[in-house]
Amino acid sequence: MASSLPLGDPAPADGVLPPQAALDAEARSFSLYAHIPFCSVRCGYCDFNTYTAAELGGGASQNEYAQTAVDEVRLAARALDASGVPRRRLSTVFFGGGTPTLLPAHDLAAILKAAVGEWGLAPGAEVTTEANPDSVTPDSLLALREAGFTRVSFGMQSAVPHVLRVLDRTHTPSRVPEAVRWARDAGLDVSLDLIYGTPGESMDDWRWSLDAALASEPDHVSAYALIVEEGTRLAAQIRRGQVPDVDDDDHAAKYEVADAVLGSAGFHWYEVSNWARSAEGDSPDAGRFECRHNLAYWHGGDWWGVGPGAHSHVGGVRWWNVKHPRAYAARLAQAESPAAGRETLDDATRLEERIILELRLAAGLPIGVLPASSRHEVAGLIAEGLVDGPSAFQGRLVLTLAGRLLADAVVRRLMP
């Protein structure tokens, strides 16, 4: 079951934002996130806002979803114009879910076309869709590339059959290299998502998955520790003793292995859970394979989130849509904003979020943004080996490998 939405202030039906949203907007990047809330099956570990066909119920149609999303894109353009936010070309577009590629390629193309029609794409813009390896074909990937997509992120998760079964994944390990090859043939960059720490996964299993991912020669790898969310089927299985619980020490050991294996293969970490293939030498493409859409989030850029349950952020104003596709479609059918609530972040909250997000990046956090009370912690963090000393002396806090393993604890130490 998907987690609940946060509380917040009421959001107006026309979607117009408070004046703060327009301040210095031209200095910030602008992105679009499109949430496609459909899955063929619900994975046992997932608490995302997604729905199988049986869960949708009446009044919500997968076949009509693309037009509903297009309606929100057009409402977004009107609302931003009415809010005084200048039009900026999209730096990145990201289709997530759910499984976006459960929709026909022409539906995804229609949503992208509407967004480009309203705002345009910046030169070299990154346009990504998530996909399951068994939800694509050579023809569908080629159609996406022809529509303007530049990148696909496959949910590989593991290369070990018994691990995939615990995660309720529907693809077989052999499908991943096949799907990657099709994406390459279509001219798309490729990212692979992995999960480590699944109950029953040995260290040899994890190494096998890493090696299998690298054998497909992706451009980017994300590796996430399995988090057991309350309300999921996996949480119930652990509670009943059907599968063992996850283990923090196991997570840490597998993270260290991932960093070593990926680093040896020529991938650099640029965010705690993300590694990108490095360009040779001093190429201007050195950061080309990093996920620029996620970097926009981590650097506090602006984005509009389309879809049920999607979150948005413009100039310190954050809002979130109603969760169910039926309620979402009903709002837009009345030409009303689907926003369920919103909040305007104060300076203290924005600083806290900047510390949380930028500290996770290899580029680090500028020490100068910290209040004096937090700067007093820096020397101790260096002495404990959690923060890189030379980088700190140059004015930036960069986590060491040990610091990445304890990133949440470091953040707590630095909070004002």
Automatic annotation (TrEMBL):
NADP among keywords: no
PANTHER family assigned to the protein according to its UniProt record, in alphabetical order: COPROPORPHYRINIGEN III OXIDASE (PTHR13932), RADICAL S-ADENOSYL METHIONINE DOMAIN-CONTAINING PROTEIN 1, MITOCHONDRIAL (PTHR13932:SF5)
Source lineage: Bacteria, Bacillati, Actinomycetota, Actinomycetes, Micrococcales
Annotated protein name in UniProt: Heme chaperone HemW
Keywords: 4Fe-4S, Chaperone, Cytoplasm, Heme, Iron, Iron-sulfur, Metal-binding, S-adenosyl-L-methionine
Annotated gene: hemW
Family, similarity comment: Belongs to the anaerobic coproporphyrinogen-III oxidase family. HemW subfamily.
Organism: Sinomonas terrae
Task of the protein: Probably acts as a heme chaperone, transferring heme to an unknown acceptor. Binds one molecule of heme per monomer, possibly covalently. Binds 1 [4Fe-4S] cluster. The cluster is coordinated with 3 cysteines and an exchangeable S-adenosyl-L-methionine.
Superkingdom of this protein's organism: Bacteria
Protein location: Cytoplasm
InterPro entries named among the record's database cross-references: Aldolase_TIM, Coproporphyrinogen-III_oxidase, Elp3/MiaA/NifB-like_rSAM, HemW-like, rSAM, rSAM_sf
Keyword Metal-binding: yes
Domain Radical SAM core: 24-268
